[in-house]
Specification:
Layout lengths: L8 H7 L8 H18 L16 H21 L5 H4 L3 E3 L2 E3 L3 H5 L3 H9 L1 H9 L11
Antiparallel strand pairs: 1-2
């Protein structure tokens, strides 16, 4: 089965604060990657789907679309679509340490790490829509 994509360029233009800085192909790839993150957040959520696996309830479908766009928007702000920078630990140069300490990063839950990478807005959108993440209580 092909990866489901929950938002289009038109959806992004309608809900994002700022226009996408890039071409249509790049935006399409980002929306696909963000859709994977939405599926990760809703992995064990219960909602009715069509034969292709898309939510049939309009409110749930809208939440998936808005969360997907929010993730792409977060990546545009942070310029970190792969999440590599958000997962980096502290950088130490001599006696100076920059970034987070490894001990604080090690104590973060899976959801906290994911939220750093995709932004709080997407998590809030899905939570407010009643679509609970399977990751909320996992460490």
């Amino acid at each position: 089965m092909a990866q489901r994509v929950y938002a289009t360029a038109i959806n992004y233009a309608a809900v994002a604060e700022d226009p996408f800085e890039g071409d249509a192909g790049k935006l399409g790839k980002r929306l696909r990657s963000a859709s994977i993150e939405v599926e990760k957040l809703t992995r064990l959520a219960v909602y009715t789907t069509d034969v292709d696996g898309y939510p049939t309830d309009a409110d749930v479908s809208d939440a998936f679309t808005e969360a997907t766009c929010a993730i792409v928007e977060h990546w545009e702000i942070t310029d970190d679509p792969t999440g590599a920078e958000s997962q980096q630990g502290a950088v130490k140069i001599g006696s100076v340490s920059l970034g987070t300490t490894s001990s604080s990063a090690a104590n973060e839950s899976v959801l906290e790490k994911l939220t750093k990478r995709i932004g709080e807005k997407a998590v809030d959108i899905l939570t407010n829509a009643g679509i609970r993440s399977s990751l909320i209580n996992h460490r």
